[in-house]
Amino acid sequence: MSTDLIKVDAPAIELRGLVKRFGDNEVLRGIDFTVRAGEVVCVIGPSGSGKSTLLRSVNLLEEPSDGNIFIEGIDILDPETDIDRVRTRIGMVFQSFNLFPHMTVLGNLTIAQRRVLKRGKAEAQRVAHEMLGRVGLSEKADAYPSHLSGGQQQRVAIARALCMNPDMMLFDEPTSALDPELVGEVLAVMRALADEGMTMLVVTHEMGFAREVGDRLIFMDGGVIVEEGNPREVLANPQHERTRNFLSRVL
Ligand code: ADP
Ligand code: MG
């Protein structure tokens, strides 16, 4: 199917029966879920429950063992699908910022725009400055990553993703590597993005963020979705013993 035929009314992300095995280890055991356009879905769960594998499967950084993945209605496991094209619609932000250390912030923000989207230099720089403004770092365009705090580097990584004009953003524990006093500035940028209507799938341990910003909260354990629902309800009144156990350890 041509990726030009994006179905605008299709869910942003739809997983059906997603299974992922590493050898004998079944890490995802049949995951079904849908993220609608504009929705903010937070994913919580113990270490090793499959959260990162789930996120990485969404843009085929991990190849599923079974099941289906639809991005904006496009079957991305269809060999006819141009996966690189679909990936440009999906921004990813990881725990580690992965900025190029030998490039300035502006260089980091323009390289993929130029190489992948084939934007001209002036256009790429204009977009980069706009996105730096959105994350509150307009004055850091010429700085090198090593001269920035962890929180600033993560905000640059978010700006870098936004420069590609993604339809949705995936976050994998974006604040877990940060000193506690730097977490708030990154969460504030993410909250602003959510308020602007960005579709977001966020793996996080920040329960306050999940409660206040999330439209839906998913609790994963052992490669399955144990429970999902309104974040306030799930956090205040978890229905499953495994959810209660987990929350009693982290809240
Ligand atoms: P989480 O993000 O919830 O901590 P992960 O998705 O990272 O969990 O990992 C789930 C399980 O999959 C773990 O048991 C982990 O060891 C295993 N796993 C993840 N990636 C790989 C890989 N590339 N090769 C083998 N096992 C992996
Ligand atoms: Mg993880």
Could you walk me through the main structural features you see in this protein, from its secondary elements to its overall organization?
This protein is 36% helix and 24% strand. The protein is of the alpha/beta class. Adenosine-5'-diphosphate binds next to strand 2 and helix 1.
Number of helical regions? 9
Mean pLDDT: 95
Largest sheet: 6 strands, mixed
Could you name the ranges where pLDDT drops below 50 across 5 or more consecutive residues?
none
Strand content: 15-25%
Strand order of the largest sheet: 6-7-8-3-9-10
Secondary-structure-derived class? alpha/beta
Oligomer: single chain
Q: Assign a percent range to the helix content.
A: 25-40%
Shape assignment: globular
What are the SSEs and their pairings?
Layout lengths: L12 E10 L2 E11 L4 E5 L6 H8 L7 E6 L2 E2 L7 H5 L2 E4 L11 H11 L5 H14 L15 H13 L5 E5 L7 H16 L3 E5 L3 H7 L2 E6 L2 E6 L1 H6 L4 H10 L1
Helix pairs in contact: 3-4, 3-5, 4-5, 5-6
Bound molecules: adenosine-5'-diphosphate (ADP) and magnesium ion (MG).
Magnesium ion binds next to helix 1.
